[in-house]
Structures are given as C-alpha cells and as structure tokens.
Design brief:
Low-confidence stretches: none
Order of helices and strands: EEHEEEEE
Largest sheet: 5 strands, mixed
CATH class: Alpha Beta
Bound molecules: FE2/S2 (inorganic) cluster
Distance between the termini: 45 Å
Shape: globular
Strand order of the largest sheet: 2-1-5-3-4
Number of helices: 1
Mean pLDDT: 95
Number of domains: 1
CATH architecture: Roll
C-alpha cells in the first residue's frame, strides 16, 4: 500500500463575487492554508468557514457524479469537487449557465 504524504501550504485564491442575474461582479482574493489533498470545493468551503459566510457555490454529491459544481478554475471548466488544488487559483462561474450568486450556477446548461 502506497502512503501519500499530505502537505499544508499557503494558497492565494481569487473568487468571483457577484449578486448574480447579470449584476456586476469582481474578484476577491483570499490567502489561506490548504492541504495538498483537498479539492477546489474544499477550498471554497474553507473560505466560507473562515471569512465569507455568504459565499455561494454548489456542493452536493462531492464525488463528481451530479455534475452540478462546474466552475472555471485557472481558465479550465472543471468540477470543483474533483479538481485538485494549486498554490494559486482563480475560480469563476462556469460559462453558459445562469449565475445565481458568486460561483453558484443554475445546474442547467444554456
Ligand atoms: S458536487 Fe456533484 S459533481 Fe461536484
């Protein structure tokens, strides 16, 4: 059995914040300690726990099955619950979806 060493490190994460439905938005940047085995969804949850209790994003199955947590992370469309973390991340709502708030989308592609 292979043992994977988990490391903690400081990450800089920019998250798109908006009231949704066509409202203007802007990136907010957070610096936080994360673990190398986290997903991007774990990072969003940590930001909400630490500093932004109203940060909106989708989290359901957390297994990559429901496909409701799409977002654009560092320019690529990914499922946040299965996407590995990086030291610097930009997280914004997935394109072609209605943005309900922040990176929370209506999980029906337009
Ligand atoms: S929460 Fe279901 S696929 Fe990410």
């Amino acid at each position: 059995m292979q043992v994977v060493e988990v490391q903690e490190y400081e990450a800089q994460v920019s998250v798109w914040r908006t009231d949704g439905d066509g409202a203007d938005g802007a990136f907010e940047t957070y610096v936080l300690t994360i673990c190398s085995d986290w997903s991007v969804l774990n990072v969003l949850q940590q930001i909400r726990r630490d500093t932004e209790p109203d940060l909106a994003f989708y989290a359901a199955c957390k297994l990559g099955l429901c496909t409701a947590c799409w977002a654009i992370v560092n320019g690529a469309k990914v499922l946040t619950c299965t996407e590995p973390v990086a030291p610097e991340m930009t997280i914004e709502p997935a394109k072609n979806y209605r943005v309900l708030r922040d990176v929370l989308i209506e999980p029906i592609e337009r």
